[in-house]
Description:
This protein has helices spanning 20-30, 32-37, 75-97, 108-111, and strands spanning 5-12, 42-47, 55-60, 65-69. The protein is an alpha+beta fold and 121 residues long. The protein has a single domain (2-98), classed as Glutaredoxin (3-Layer(aba) Sandwich), CATH 3.40.30. A four-stranded mixed beta sheet has the order 2-1-3-4, with helices on one face. α1 (20-30) crosses α3.
Amino acid sequence: MLKFLSRVRIEFNALDPRVASCMEFLAQCNARNAKESNPACQIQVKRRTDDHPPQITVTFVNGVEEVFDATATPAQTIRTMILEKGQLLETEQMFREAGEAWPVIIPDEELHRHAPGTKAT
């Protein structure tokens, strides 16, 4: 998961009962496999003393920043969203390295063309 990120910032008040998602996500970030996937990823923890809701901010390697409301989003959902965006980044990079345009635009007539060996419905 961390291989797609350059920075993770986790903010929470330790006394807030809604802190579970932040703590679980922090544990995932501190796992050996995660750290080995990108040792350069900065993990910052800000312990708050106010009523600000728990929040997780991630910065992808391309500089795009995304903020997650950790009160309403489970850690596993955040992890899944990061992995999905990361795969998109990998695909985009692969196309750019091959000199292809991104995003790939498929003409409408090709979308509706039947592939050989399949039944037309």
